[in-house]
Write a structure and sequence with these properties.
single chain, 213 residues, mainly alpha
Amino acid sequence: MNLTQAGKIFLNAILSGIAIGIAGTVFLAVKNANLGAFLFAFALMTILCYGFKLFTGAIGYLVTQKRSGVIAYLITLVLIWGGNLAGCYAVGFLIRNSRTFGKISARASAVCAEKLADTPLSILILAFFCGMLMYIGVESYKRKELGDIFRFASVFLCVAIFILCGFEHCIANMYYFSAAGVWDTHTLLYVLLMTLGNSLGSWVIPLADKVRN
């Protein structure tokens, strides 16, 4: 991977973070949970349609890489994770300096307080199931033989389900923590724990496919 390729990956990852930040903002702004869950799917649909790079959409494919390509893919994942964080933080910073923040500040603080007060085991479990759903949504979208209706519906359903179930999405939480302005060592450790949980969950189906096939 050269610097140009790395730069493109990082830029596409930033754009994904921005999309997640916009979706997170509307989720915090609307009072109806069902509507918020539906609207949040805007982010994943945008990312998939435009070919942006999202960590939770890419991590599941680590276990399908050939041994010779694992290191390169790990570097790609690190770039994506960092770019997603940069995009989410940028949107969070900008929203905090806009009048929209007045509409979402209380909700953002409450959401973040609940997450950061949770136990590590609970966070890991909730992130695990989110990882499974993210892989299902992304992989379903890629399978054109399933038909457009199923592909697009799968994206919206997987996102809505993980939100309504309270599952933990490491990138979405990067935005919430940025919007609420609660970054510290504890927050970073929890984001890393969520990243681990999302990764483990994303690997379940592709690893099972290797066994089944």
